[in-house]
Amino acid sequence: MADRGYSVLLSHLHKPSSTLPLDTLRTLITFNLAHTPTPRPLSATIISSPLFRPFSRAKLTALLTAFRHAVHVRLTVLEDEDKTAGIFRRGVKPRMEEWVKSVVMGFSGGQGMIRLVGAGGILLGLEDLKERLGAQQGSGGARARSEDEVVVAVAEVMDVYGGPKDSAWEKEFQPETENGQVDVLHMALLFAAQFLPHVFPERLKALPLSMLCFHLMSSIETTFLLGTFLNDLASSCVTNSGGHLSLTHKQDISQTAFPYENPSSMQRSSPLAMTLRMLTSSPLFTSVATLTKLLSRSIPLLMESRPADGWHTVAQILDRLDVIAANIDEAWSQSALSSVEENGNIAPESREIATAIWTVLKTFLFTTVMISQSILSTVVYTVPPSTPSPSDPTAFSLSLATLRILSHLAFVISQFGGITTASEGGFSELKRVFYTSLDVLSASPGSTEHFVKMLASEEMSTPGSSSSSGAPDFGVYLRSKKALRLGCIEQLIPVLGISTIENSVFPLCVPHLYDPLKRELYESAHSVVLAMFAAHAQRRSNHLESDHDELSNGTSQSSSFIEKIVPFYARCLLENSGDGKLNTVQLRLAYAALTSGANTSSPTLAQFCLQALLDEISAVQTNSHATAHTHRLHLTLISSLPSLPLPLLPSALDAVADIIQQYPGDVEAKERQTELIHSVFKAILEQIGDREKEYAMRWWADHKLLFDDVEIERQDAGGDDTKGKAKAENAANARL
Predict the structure, then answer these.
(1) pTM metric for this prediction
(2) Could you tell me if 354 and 224 lie in one domain?
(3) What is residue 245's three-state secondary structure?
């Protein structure tokens, strides 16, 4: 029966077509390969069979599976034979090595695509059984032979199919794919993306990695149609009679087949639903994660083995990603869908299309993040060319390119909660790319200044932008852009010149400081202003640690600017202390940072901040309905204590004591009073400086009766949490 099956298989392999189903053919190949001790002739026959031409993904997948399963079955056969063999029979592993080498030798002279799939199937089979065979990545023997064959086949396929197809002779005689499937090179890369991750990195360096990266990027461009898949979005959007947005508007335009053979043919558009359906069902789209993973793995190897080529290659990759992102951004900005705040505003019959759009957009974002992360994490450890020309890419230019791409995708990023310090959610890889780009850029003050001024120019040119206190009504699309710009600026404040901060940055923040309805913009703007105070404090600290007696010009200008904005921002924070604006934690942190920055410039400014807060507390206390607001201001006063200089501390602490004494005796008020006492205790214990702590401790002892019956958590000498009543000076001092 085995001989008959072998004969049947050979008869079908010699024909250009077969009546056998692919599953049956795959089973025959697996069985006969596994049960043939010297499979080289059969392997050669399979590789040269016309049955697998023209190429199709189904045929090649069946061939891949046949070789992969043959490895499993052959090992089982050898293990079964070993159970009944004598003691002088060769072991399973040597015979398995011999069988694998024989299979791979049969690939010699075969067509590159078929050899790639066959060798890849053997490699995946060995990877499956690596624990049982000891065939780890990087080992010699049969594993090395299969890895070498995969690498050579990939190089051959790129050489044959990677060039231009201008010749009619080439088009006629090069193998084509069945039924208009993706072209041969894209199909080869789909399979290579499964195999190459299992190849030892040193062997991968033998590949023309720059060419591999180029072709992988071409496949990604083809996957997303160069970003033109949303070109019909604007014309597809109409508002129906119910006031909902419909995305199914009919258009009389020519259809364009997908996938395309080259990105240059992607200029024509098809109706939105048809384009999305064809895009998401494409094998390139379903495999884009593996293509991206292979590209991300190839970039570090290229930068390590051929740095000169690597720098230019990664710059080109980012430029090509930028083109896709820019096309997506432009099409989205012109559509009515960009202003939709909630999914409920979309017509029910269009929600499936909207879901498909977001699926593609998020997939492209993941692709961009994975590639950008690989590039940035590599270039920071790679030395640029020793004799660079002005046109050569640098780490700074690559970080700028990455930030530009993220800016185009800001409306997609906002769906993950944003990536700014004020945002919640998001995924760590995205934030890592964002902050790594900013870290790299901040090492170049000149590039940073240019970038921030460019952001400011873009912001001021946005329709409706204004430096007035009344913020314009931006749509969700523009808000996402503005929030990302403010997030970039916040991180770069420490390296910006004071002139740029005063003339370009601060005017951008003012329109958003009073508008809590646009929450992300509101919080981002406050974060940028607080970053200004923190940067000023750092400059002053650096000056005090230096040997210079006089302030530098930059530090002097910074002090002058801070002195001008402290009164404005103090009033701004107090006006934003009401319900529905800054929450208690945000207000406490912000006012403490403001007071600290003011004190760094001048104790008089710190006194202004303290007095403004006390005046606001007095004004709000007259309103009996503002209990929560009043309590929020009381906590803010306590949070500001560590930021005050010693001369101002007595009056501030006395004001705190008066506030605590004024709380009524009902249960709710008692809880708030207890919270104030705990906050004072924590401020004195952990936050007030050594110089001021001595006075604060005496103040605590002098007001010990005020804190009677209030349990305060502390740690004893052994480190265990305990609770005790603050009834004596010794107890208070012990905790401090």
Answers:
(1) 0.86
(2) yes
(3) strand
